[in-house]
Amino acid sequence: MKIRHANKTDFSWLKENDAHISEDTLKTKIDCKEIYIAEVDDKYIGWLRYSLFWDNMPFMNLIYFFDGYRRKGYGKKLVEYWENEMRQKGHKNVLTSTLSNEEAQHFYGKLSYKEIGGFKLEDEAYEIIFHKNLP
Q1: What's the gap between Cα 42 and its chain centre?
Q2: What is the model's pLDDT at position 135?
Q3: In which band, very low, low, confident or very high, does the pLDDT at 124 lie, cut at 50, 70 and 90?
Q4: What single DSSP character describes residue 117?
Q5: Under CATH, to which class is 2-133 assigned?
Q6: End-to-end CA distance of the chain
Q7: 60 pLDDT band (50/70/90 cuts)?
Q8: Domain residue limits, the chain
Q9: Per-residue pLDDT, 6
Q10: What average pLDDT does this structure show over 63-90?
Q11: d(CA 7, CA 119)
């Protein structure tokens, strides 16, 4: 698997596949190198998008892989790549979250993320916040 920062040539593809983000924010995240693309044989298989919580702590907003590429170790490799880059930037901690009715909570647990709390929006499942120290 090849992992790289998204660039302007990825904009249309990301816009088409990531419905959770506005076009303006997507452009900014590409410019700020806050999106990673995962490829196999020059085919896009998934991506990871992050931001800075409290303007100083990396927060993984989204990790997504297409069907056929899940449960094959690609997600773990992409998260580890992101964590390593965050470590190299001097960050000591990272955060992420998932809904309590999603299986992602088990994925994060396997990667040594610890549940530290959460919240519940009206008509939504409980959102679990996860934290990990970067040694």
Answers
A1: 20
A2: 87
A3: very high
A4: E
A5: alpha beta
A6: 25
A7: very high
A8: 2-133
A9: 98
A10: 97
A11: 34
Residue 84 burial class via C-beta count within 10 angstroms: exposed 0-12, middle 13-18, buried 19 and up: exposed
For residue 115, how many other CB atoms are within 10 A of its CB?
14
CA dihedral for 4, 8, 69, 83, sign (positive or negative): positive
Show the tokens assigned to 61: 């907003």
The whole-angstrom separation of Cα 83 and Cα 1 is: 17
- Whole-angstrom Cα distance, residue 133 to residue 127? 20
In this model, does residue 2 exceed pLDDT 90? yes
Under 8 Å between Cβ of 37 and 10: yes
User: Is the whole model's pTM more than 0.90, yes or no?
Assistant: yes
Tokens of 68: 């056929």
